[in-house]
């Protein structure tokens, strides 16, 4: 009795429920006599999950609006915490809805068997067998095709739409948070006394030179400006590296470079080459092998989002395989050679245009002073 006295009302009810089941007074699934049933505790009313979610969504929207009114900076912290919780709830609820839909469509047994096979294969370190991947793909296609027949289709659709919206909001929130942190670190880097002193000194020299553009600066001052710029960029690269990010050199876009070329023939060739490359990539991605690999990559990525410490090697291996397959297909199609030829043709056209520009400037200078002794304008092709 002392033990019962320490129990709460809820604990006593659970103890009584377990006792009656243990001694056989009540058996799950079997009908209960009316005279006994009248004294039994009724089941707790289960609130509608959809209604609960809608209420939580509305509550979240109100919180975000209040945060915006109070301070734009507080939006990131608030949305980050609440969105993560909401996304997890939605994912869990969507899984339940999918199970109900599969049961209604008669796919429950196939789904359970496939899940069991997937769990066994996933426990091993090597990649899944292509036959299992194909079976998963077929079941997924059939499920999606017949989902509209399920009685809970509207509920599934509404929750999927909510999940998409919250996932976008989470991505935007994370991007804003990273941007804010980068800007803060950059500001700290450029405000360091030694960096600030160099920048201010170069600014003063440029201002005193009276030049209105970079081209008008002397060679010595141009070199100082470029050197200072490189030093500031190096400081920023250190900041990014400390945040686990990397700064990659930006390779000039072939399309942008061609746009600067007056040769219309080269522009037409580039447009045609781009079309051929896109068509080839789409053709490769539509093959059963790549489709299976992409689907497996999605599965592994989803699993890694729940368990970040696992599956990274599988994901990297799959990404490398997909990229290699596409690269091999492009290489065998001869498109890579076409791009290299176009780049050579473009380089020759740009070199020719630069020579013509230099000749034009030289002729103009000769016409102005007649002797060629005047100061000629310094032309830097990269700024022309």
From TrEMBL:
The UniProt regions of compositional bias labelled Acidic residues, in chain numbering, are 354-370
Q: Which UniProt keywords apply?
A: Coiled coil
Basic and acidic residues bias located where?
A: 337-348
**Annotated pathway:** Lipid metabolism; malonyl-CoA biosynthesis; malonyl-CoA from acetyl-CoA: step 1/1
Chain intervals for the UniProt region annotation (Disordered): 334-384
What positions belong to coiled-coil segments?
43-70
Q: Which domain of life is it from?
A: Eukaryota
Citing just one GO molecular function, the answer is: carboxyl- or carbamoyltransferase activity
Single GO cellular component annotation? acetyl-CoA carboxylase complex
Q: Does the keyword Nucleotide-binding apply?
A: no
Keyword Zinc among UniProt keywords: no
**Listed GO biological process terms:** fatty acid biosynthetic process; malonyl-CoA biosynthetic process
Protein name (Swiss-Prot/TrEMBL):
Uncharacterized protein
Annotated source species: Brassica campestris
Q: What is the lineage of its organism?
A: Eukaryota, Viridiplantae, Streptophyta, Embryophyta, Tracheophyta
